[in-house]
Amino acid sequence: MDIKIVKNTNPKEKPDQSNLGFGKYMTDHMFIMDYDAGEGWHDARIVPYGPISMEPNAIALHYAQETFEGLKAYRTADGGIQLFRPEMNAKRMINSNARLCMPPVPVEMFIEAIEALVKVDADWIPTAPETSLYIRPFMFANQGQLGVHTSKKYIFAIILSPVGAYYANGLAPVRIMVEDEYVRAAQGGTGFTKCGGNYAGSLIGQEKAERLGYSQVLWLDGAERKYVEEVGAMNIMFKIDGEIWTAPCTGTVLPGVTRDSMIQVLKKWGYTVREERLSIDDLMQAGRDGKLEEVFGTGTAAVISPVGMLAYKDEKLVINNEEIGELTQKLYDYLTGIQWGRIEDEFGWIRKVQ
Ligand code: COI
Predict the structure, then answer these.
(1) Can you give the residue range of the structural domain that contains 63?
(2) 159 and 181 within one domain
(3) Residue having the nearest C-alpha atom to atom 3 of ligand 1
(4) Residue 279 predicted with pLDDT over 90
């Protein structure tokens, strides 16, 4: 792919690495390319980060034809730069786009665009412990028209943000509220895609949770509000009586890259992993019986996030004394060890950028 590069002549000052938070700062450049039906992708370019101009009647603004991805670039101790399973993100975006009637970005093109942009903004990759460069590819329908039809024009863009921990308290266990009123996804819908609309529809649950003192929402299935599915910004796993349970990816759950990676690691370590439906009643009962040993979220942004409390209706279940579980810590250390190049990548998950 031919990528034109226009350097930013007015680079910003880099933020303090000890207080990055998540997604607050953007780097100096962004990648953009255009799609027109009949012509395909064209005009790939890396330009200074800045506003994108759109027609007020662009389809994305009215009918939410939009998808996105999230992955990270890591700076290794020897000064290298590496990505974690970027082809998984590329393939997931192709699947999301197919559901939203949007054109695919071929896997190699997706990765090439990321690598080119990361190289241009390489000095933005933070080096402080547990920090990384969050990569946000996204695509939206840019044809101007008010009829509800598939767009004939799209923009695919990538922006970068140096980040620390997703949650304000780092690896400290989070408290999660089980949502029993609103739903996130239903069979046949868009739950398995990474589209902005899924997140828009879930904000009301997130607001409610935050108002009540919780960090995130645990969503139940859309048909019966009975089975646990996923959390707002991550998949979720439960260690019950020595076995790991997580919701199956059967259409309503996001097929997380970290989720898939942890399932492979857990199996390699000899754990039984049950990708099966688990009812909230059985989960709460396991907690009451002292069998719910650990709960943790998995996600690119959140990495491995211990859960210390689950609140469902009037009951508050405290998990592992609101302390990080042994397995949760072990998974976190192993995954981040591979990502930052501290331990050997037995699975072949790392892609070196330089
Ligand atoms: C990610 O983990 O990369 C996500 O996209 C989750 C969230 C920040 C939307």
Answers:
(1) 4-163
(2) no
(3) 70
(4) yes
